[in-house]
Amino acid sequence: MKARENPFAPGRMERVLPFDPELVGTTWQEIESRWESLGRRACVVGHHGAGKTTFLDGFERRLCGRVPVVRLFFNRSKRRLEPEDLEKLGDLGGKCLLVDGDRHLPLRDRIELWHGARKASGVVSARHRAGRLPVLLGLRSNPQLAESLLGRACPKEAAEFRELLPALLRRHRGNIRNVWLECYDRWAG
What we know:
- Helix content is 44%, strand content 14%.
- It is an alpha/beta fold.
- It folds into 2 domains: 3-18 and 141-188, no CATH class; 24-139, Rossmann fold.
- Helix 5 links the parallel strand 3 and strand 4.
- It comes from Haloferula helveola.
């Protein structure tokens, strides 16, 4: 079997499962209205694999065409502000800043990031905890959400994996991305 034939292939799952606010009981209009009411400065919070990056992907698509967007991403492999990041921070006037994983940065870099972010016309940060930013949206995965996503992404395979989902979610501490990776391995195996 070829990896591209696997219905749980990570690239495929990202394409077929864009963020859907209805799955968390809201709409894009309500999210954008709340963001405006928060002064266009807020964060989306949730545990690993709860959908924060997927939310930022969708929010970026919503903003594109209306306002220029600058996106910065940090993780265990990228823990510093690089020169290109600093260049982007220096040119934020009239742009919206989307930040993913700023808590991976050392304190000095975080201070520099948020000092530069003051020039942005709006900010959304994806984090595990809110910190000083108000919460725009809190995300949590659960078996019902995982089952709904499974049915959307892989309707043919849904019956085969439906009963496994609660155990997989527990094993991966709610990280849906890791659940899909295990499904990928099981389907290929």
